[in-house]
């Protein structure tokens, strides 16, 4: 079953004070089956993050379709979907992890993870138990659980970001350089979590500059330079 299909995706940005338009991505095309992991590779500035943000609808694309096979709405074009539909999907089906933590002020680490579960309809007790499991798993110091994240280091913020997204066990998870500022032990934890989510059926699309991290994880690779997708067989990409 195809979980995500991107057809002819295009996105440009206008720099108004220079009266200039920059094309970020053009005619992007790929598909991901349920439970697969697609890795997107390419040099900095090639538009990798733009693709993920377009899928999550942080950016509204200028052209093409992004067809997602949702549990709630069936097949839906994320470009044409209403704001209400997008908010529902973000809360219940689609997760996003970036290098940066952007959260509500005066909300503790514990509350942020619990709220991610509560908005899905989980009970307070279930949210409490699963939150503590997630924070422990990603080795967040227990002394930080009731602290505000603006005091955290970059690595701590990133681990919290990952915990918030993965605790929900989303149907589709978008990963934008989620291991950028992590040490090797934390990277292993993230890899183990990704493998666990895959086993549970989560579909993933991710960007990693750490090629070694991606090895053995990805089922497919999309190359921004060639604008082509390949299937990974025994660690080596082959054209699909």
From TrEMBL:
InterPro entries in alphabetical order: AAA+_ATPase, ABC_transporter-like_ATP-bd, CP_lyase_PhnL, P-loop_NTPase
Keywords: ATP-binding, Lyase, Nucleotide-binding
Domain of life: Bacteria
Pfam family, one: ABC_tran
Single annotated GO MF: lyase activity
SMART domains tied to this protein: AAA
PROSITE patterns assigned: ABC_TRANSPORTER_2
Keyword Nucleotide-binding: yes
Coiled-coil intervals, chain numbering: none
Homology family: Belongs to the ABC transporter superfamily.
NCBIfam families associated with the record: CP_lyasePhnL
Protein name: Phosphonate C-P lyase system protein PhnL
Source organism (scientific name): Gracilibacillus thailandensis
């Amino acid at each position: 079953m195809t979980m995500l299909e991107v057809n002819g995706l295009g996105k440009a940005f206008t720099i108004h004070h220079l009266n200039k338009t920059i094309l970020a991505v053009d005619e992007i095309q790929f598909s991901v089956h349920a439970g697969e992991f697609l890795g997107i590779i390419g040099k900095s500035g090639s538009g990798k993050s733009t693709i993920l943000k377009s899928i999550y609808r942080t950016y509204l694309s200028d052209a093409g379709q992004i067809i997602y096979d949702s549990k709630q709405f069936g097949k839906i074009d994320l470009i044409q979907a209403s704001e209400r539909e997008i908010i529902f999907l973000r809360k219940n089906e689609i997760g996003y992890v970036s290098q940066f933590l952007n959260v509500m002020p005066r909300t503790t680490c514990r509350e942020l993870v619990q709220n991610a579960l509560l908005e899905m309809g989980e009970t307070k007790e279930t949210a409490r138990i699963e939150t503590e499991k997630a924070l422990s798993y990603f080795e967040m110091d227990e002394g930080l659980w009731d602290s505000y994240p603006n005091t955290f280091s970059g690595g701590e913020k990133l681990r919290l970001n990952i915990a918030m997204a993965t605790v929900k066990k989303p149907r589709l998870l978008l990963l934008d350089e989620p291991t950028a500022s992590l040490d090797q032990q934390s990277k292993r934890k993230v890899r183990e979590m990704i493998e666990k989510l895959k086993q549970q059926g989560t579909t993933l699309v991710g960007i990693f500059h750490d090629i070694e991290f991606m090895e053995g994880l990805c089922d497919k690779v999309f190359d921004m330079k060639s604008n082509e997708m390949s299937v990974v067989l025994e660690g080596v990409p082959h054209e699909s």
